[in-house]
Write a structure and sequence with these properties.
By secondary structure, this protein is an all-alpha fold. The chain has a single domain, classed as Orthogonal Bundle (Globin-like). The protein contains six helices and no strands. Bound molecules: protoporphyrin IX containing FE.
Length: 132
């Protein structure tokens, strides 16, 4: 992440992240996500919202973040937890990106539903039509 052309300077120059304190927080965060223990206490939304005023935190940045995250997981891990890590990360990308930029989370945009909600909407319409 630190060497990436799109994201590296955000850690190095904008936030001036201290790796020695940041990395243990990330370990605790992901351990809490996966195993529900790890003792992470923090506010990731606030940490990223602060950055919006200082630099670009748009879709290209989050897409790159997710690409790097997925590649790293694939190099280091395999199995059920690896899959969970990647899907949890993809969800959180949508949540953090949309909340800090005040745009609609694509998963919750009623005008543009993803396959799950689309199927539920269709089922709802059908059952409504059946009872009418
Ligand atoms: C454009 C994408 C992203 C960038 C540039 C970015 C950058 C940063 C920076 C600069 C910090 C503050 C580090 C410090 O203390 O100096 C941070 C904290 C953090 N980030 Fe990200 N981040 C991104 C996406 C994400 C995503 C998608 C997640 C979760 C899936 C995440 C999880 C965290 C966590 C858990 C913290 C620690 C918060 C805390 O200490 O309370 N980041 N990030």
């Amino acid at each position: 992440m630190q060497q990436d052309d799109l994201l590296g300077f955000i850690f190095e120059e904008v936030a001036k992240t201290n790796r020695e304190t940041h990395l243990p927080r990330l370990v605790a965060f992901w351990e809490t996500v996966i195993f529900r223990r790890g003792g992470f206490v923090g506010n990731p939304l606030a940490a990223h919202a602060k950055l919006v005023a200082l630099t670009e935190m748009g879709r290209p940045q989050f897409d790159r973040w997710l690409l790097l995250f997925r590649q790293t997981v694939d190099v280091l891990f395999a199995g059920e937890h690896a899959g969970h890590l990647k899907s949890a990360a993809a969800e959180m990308v949508n949540v953090i990106y949309s909340r800090i930029n005040h745009v609609v989370d694509p998963r919750f945009d009623p005008a543009n539903p993803t396959p799950g909600p689309r199927a539920r909407q269709a089922a709802c319409r059908e059952s409504g039509a059946a009872s009418a």
